[in-house]
Each structure stands twice: as structure tokens, then as C-alpha cells.
Fold these 2 entries.
Entry 1:
Amino acid sequence: MSLGRIGQQAKLCLKNQSKYQHLGAFVPSTSNTESITKASQEADERHDRDRPLSFIDGELIAIKDNFCTTDQPTTCASKALQGFYSPFSATVVERLQAAGAIIAGKTNLDEFGMGSHGINSAHGPVKSPASDRGSQRSVGGSSGGSALVTSTRQCFAALGTDTGGSVRLPAARTGTVGFKPSYGTVSRWGVIAYANSLDTVGVFGRSVEAAKQVYRLIEGHDPRDPTSISQLTRSRVESQVSCRPRNKTLRIGIPREYLLKELDPLINKHWSLALQLLRGQGHSIHLVSLPTTKAALAAYYILAPAEASSNLAKYDGVRYGNRAPNDRDKPNVLFSSTRGHCFGAEVRRRILLGSYTLSSTAIDNYFIRAQKVRRLVQDDFNKAFAMKHPLLQHQEESLRKEDNKEETGVDILITPTSLNLPPLLSSLQSDQNDDPTKEFQEDVYTVPASLAGLPAISVPVPCMDWKQVGLQVMGQYGDDERVLDAASKLEELLKDADD
């Protein structure tokens, strides 16, 4: 039987899955060749009858292994959930399947989403196909598997989760597009939580247009998710966004606090060149200040572990998850060894950190102060953007005087996505032994947008071999379409300049 267009695409993806299997991007045994082939044939038949279910009908989309699925195990790359099958699928998975998308498999990640390099997994690390003189480099984390399967054409697009940069950082490391929407626009129901107030479903694509197509299918209110924005609130946000004119030229902000001396020279060079290209197209560049940025990373690594320590309390082998064998043999012992046995070192570290910051002796000095810093980060962004935050009904006078708001505010911010080029995996393993907190600095450019719940996207700069660079576009809350449009313009300019 001759294959149609969809079937041929699926065949190529499956061939690449076999070719790159050694990189550890897919969780073992979650990609079913037979079912994918059958589904692609059915999609071809729908297209032949001119009745596709959607514009991605028949496309292969990979799912990060912290999204619940009924037909494949959901492990979060942890021994605690080894062999676990969910009785339901996540809302975004259901929406993709209803649109005719084919699930390509479940992708590897840092355990429970905790990590910036894709190495904290019970399934082994995710490795980059591009090496430096034979040495493997990081693909970023925690959604490194989803980024890698997208960049190596093992699927059309992939879903990940972004808590403090877990979609944008891997996108920058692998030369793909990684989009984090505004918090609450995409349902989190069926996504295993790391930090509830920060977790956001994100999309990987090889182009901004591909990421946009998938995003538009999965966004929308979900009554099962308490953090999902209601239809009434969405209407209010859309009304305010529509009031802002869509000018051909943009006012682009550059935060002075992001001009760090630690920034890799190659990344700084591409950042400067991109701004020059944008200025040449008539867009204006403006220096802005986000003073609380300096405290944002510290606040994030107090708040996220605190929420994680609460969310992961249920994995004790009694109420939920697997149980260590030696706990069963000890009299009067319920789960003392299970959590130590099932959780990796990084997860244990963050649980301990979070438990301490929530303790009665430390909560005022750490957790409460971190929440105040988070609000200040949000206020900084509100001062910088021309558009008011659509969910704040009463703007404080200190944020912006209305008479000069349009003149001084910017439409978007453009920054680097990462501080450094992809590091060697061997150096990361030694760093974990010497200073396990060193990897936290990788999130310095991505964390502020997460704390404020803003839309942000990483756009790849065409580079050679392993020297991958990503540039980040951020916008005001709810202004996702403007961010995507700006990212498309930037993507086109970068490709034209490379040619």
C-alpha cells in the first residue's frame, strides 16, 4: 500500500526515532510504531476526503512524561512512579487527540521537572547529537527530551512544562522554538505538578508558526483546572489587548539588568546583531529598568521548592507511588526508606530546601519575603510595558502615570534566553558533586517572566554545531499573540541574515 503525505512524514519521524534512540530523548517503550503507522493512514484518508479534523491532523506530537496519558505510563522520570498508568489523560492531550494529532511518545525530563540540563532522570540523561570533539553537551532542562525530539525531526512538535524556564532554555540549547504562554491560558489538569503557581504548559516547534498552531489548539478554559482563566476573564483580557493598536513597528525594551558581565560573548554578539537588524526594519530600541531582577532568581528557588515539597508529599508508597522493598520488611515502619530510595538527589535536595523555608522558624524570613519579591518583579514589568496588566483592575499610581504611559512604555522585551553556551555533560556531573546549586544560574534570564506569569518565547539564532544561541521575546500578560508575531519577525530576520 502506497503511503500518503501524512504516512510519509510519519515514516520519516519513526526513522529518526530509531536513528537517535541512543540520545535518550524518548522514555523507553512509549513510542508504538504500529499504532503510529495506523493512525497516520487514517489521517491520510481524512485528508483525501478533504475532511481533516484540524490543520495538525496526522502530525506527530511528543508529550513530556509528566503529562498523564491512559495508554502509556507516566513516570515523571522517577522511580517513585515507575510503571504507573493514569486512569485519565491530561486536558491538552485530549485536545490534541481530538484534533487528529498522533502522540509520538513520552519524552525524558529531569525528575519531576527539577533541573536545567536534562541529567536528573531515572531513565538516564538526555544527550545532544552535536558534540564538541566527541564530548556530549547539555540539551537543557527540564524539558530537554521534548526539545531534542523536535530539533531532530522525530516529531512535528512537542509539549513541555515551563516552571522557571524549562521550555525556553532547552529550546535555546537545541536550536528550536520554545513558547511559554501566559499563566492560566492553557490547562494544567492532568499535568503532574512541580510548583502550582509557576507551572505552565509550553510548546516546542521548529518554527514559530508550528508552535503557534499547536498553542491555538490547546489553549482555552478548562473547568477542571482551578488555575485556568475563566471565559469571562479571557474576554476582559482580549478586550484590553484589542484596544492596543497593532503598529507595523514595535517599541522594543532592553532591560539594563540583563546586561551581565557573565554573559557569554557569542550570545552577547548575536543579541546585539539581532537588535541592529530590528532597528534597521524601523523598530525602536529602548533601555528599560527591571531592578528586582537581581533578586528574582533567589525568590524563585525559595518559592518553587516550597511548593514542590508540598506537592511531592504524597509519594510515600502508601497513598501513592512505589514503595521501597526494605520498608516492607521492617516492623512498625511505614515509609522511612521509600522517599530516599525513589527520589533522586536533586529532588531530595529541593524537598529539604522547601520544607525548611516553610517551617515556622524560617517562613517569615524566606517564603513571605520571596512572595513580596515576586510582586515587585511583576510591578517592574508593569512599569516597563505600554499595555496595562489586564487582570489588575486598579493600577497603583506609583506604577505609571496614564498621561505618559503610551509614550514611555514598550511593546515587548528582547533578551538572551541563556547566560552560557551548552555546557559539557562531564562538567555538569562534577559540578553537582562540588556545588549542586551552580546550575541555578542557568535560569537567570527565564525566571522573571515565570514569576510574573508572562508570555515568553525563545527564538533560535542559526548557529553551527553545538554553539546554540536563543533570544527571548517577552510581553505583557495576555499579549501572547503580539509576542508570537514579534517572534515571527525576529525569526525571519535571523534566517535572512544567515542566508
Note: The longest strand covers residues 469-475.
Entry 2:
Amino acid sequence: MYGLFHPEYEPQTWHALIGYLLVTWATCFVVLFFNRALPMIEKLSIVAVVGGVFVTIMVCAIMPSVKGKPYASNEFVWRKWENETGWTSNGFVFMAGCLNGAYGIGTPDVVTHLCEELPRPSRNIPKAILFQNLIGFTTTLLFLITIFYALDDLDAVVGTSDTFPLTEIYRQATGSAGGALGLIIVIFISSFVCTIAGYITCGRTLWAISRDDAVPFSKMLGRIHPTKRNPFNATLTCGVLCTLLSCIFVASTTAFNAFVGSFVIFSTLSYLAAILPHLLSRRSNVEPGDFWMGGWAGYAVHTVSCLYIMAFIVIFCFPFTLPVDAVSMNYASLITGGISVFVIGWWLVKRGEYKGPQFVARDNALLAKDAL
């Protein structure tokens, strides 16, 4: 934001670190101490995110006309293809580019970690997942179309020294640094409230697996705070771990990006770890719910899902550009392999003690009440 009005500004690592820590602990604080207000905060968050997308689309669509600037051609938006990655296969570049979409809407499991706090989870969780993807797909498509038509210099975006290329896109769309600042603030607000949602999910995930005695210090992490009525210890631990991760950023941005970039691979592998055993066991170990897909259709969807995951996991491990060096190398495969070895070793240690989630019938009274 500062760099919009000071072209001579050169971002430093410690600048990003301070911003990272402020957002991390501000959002963690909200989740820790405002548990009763979280439903209202999440409702306001939805308004902020969806409203922010609407405002951004309208501004980027209208401002070029107001400023008397021409829109990009249909040829540029819909037909022109530019491959500056160094890879000779345009098909492979297209597939590798799907990584951006995976970051945007590739986490449909997020709401499932709140199933013990929602009424009728067997119906409401699938609905939430459906609407998450419908809203994500629709808003993303409209947003991309709008900013492509608002662009007038793609080379300036690609060659910008700004660590956030969207800043240059907004500058071109609005024709001013002030307009770009306003839209960047919209992005910041959306990111801030999404970080709150991220801490809600991470804290409850860590609490759930701690309750099942699957991680170190399970007794401490698996507790519910007696007055805050939330997994306080687990959420606080997530904040501490995120802070420790920032230390890697200070030492090496390459190592930090490797850890962060592995997120999509790990989350996608977690889906494979759930879907593949379900498929191989002929779907016999899960009680059919309200949205159970029976017959050949269910097997077809699960099979395609597994094949899709296996293919894209390999693609996402390739370097993003060629030629490659130690800095531009994609270390996701190294991080994935190393952590997988650690997880397998930990499973061998804990397999005799791990209890696992306990089955609760859908008509059980527990499902009609909030666990927290």
C-alpha cells in the first residue's frame, strides 16, 4: 500500500514479517477470546468477502470507461495465449496453472471441521461445501474476466517489482494509485476475515485429532476451555506454530515458499487418504447420509477423483519456470516426502494408542446440540 505512492520504496523481509505477525496474532486473538461472537463475525465476513468482490468487479469494469481508456480486446481475453514459463508444452503449462485455482477453491473440507458445532451436520455440511464451491467458481470467473478486460499492459504486470502484482492490475484498471489502494484495502479486509476462519478451522482440527490422542501433548491440546468454551490451547498452539514458521521466512524466503507452497499438495493428499480407502473397501465403512451417491455413479466419481489427485500431485511438484536454479526450484516434492516419512513414523509409534473418531448415529441427540 505504501509503495503505491512511493515508487522508490523497496520492500524488505522484515516489513513483511511485521505485517504477517500483526495479522496472525490479531486474528488468533479474535478466535481465542470472542468465541460467542464468531457466528456473527463469520456472517459479517461473508458480506465483506462477497461484497468486496462485487465492488471490485464493478470498479474494474466501469473505471476504464470513466477514464477514457480502451478495454482489452476479445482476442486478448479469450484467445491469446502467452507462455513465458520456459516449458515447451502449452498443455502442461495449462495443467500447472490449475495450481492457482487449487489455492482458491481447493479446500472444500474446511467447513467439515465445524460439524460438531452445527445442527444437522449430515445435511448442512454438504450444503455448505456446495455453496462454497458455487460462490467461489462464480465470483472467481467474473473477477478474472473483468480484470483481463481492464488490463492495458500485461508486460508491466509481469515485470513489476511489487511483491503483489494485483496492485499493478488495479492501478491500470482504475487509472490511479488511490483507486488501486481502495481495492487493495478490500483485498486486505477479505484476507483478514479469511484468516480468522482459518484459525477456527486449524484450532478445531488440532483439537479433534488431539482428542483422539493422535499428536504429542494430546491431553493439553484436546481440552475445551471451561469459560471460553473453545479449544483454546489448540488454537493458541496454531498461532505459535505460525509464528515459528515466520522465522523460516526471515532465514530463507525460498524455504518458506517451499513450506507454504506444499499446502495444496498436503490438503489434496488428505482427500486421497480418505477417498481411496473408501473406494477400495467398496464404500462399506461409511454410513450413507442424506446426500449419498449410490450405485455406479458414486464409484465413478470416487475413481475420477483419485486419478485426478494422483495426476495433479505430480504436476504440482514440477518447477514453475525453466531454466531452474536453487532459488526457483520447486521443493514441494522434498517437503512432501520428508513430512510424509515423519507422519508414517509417528503413526507407527502411536498406532497402538490411537482411538480414532467414534461413530455416532445420525439420529443421536448429540448431533442436535452444539458440542462447544
Note: The two ends are 39 Å apart (CA to CA).
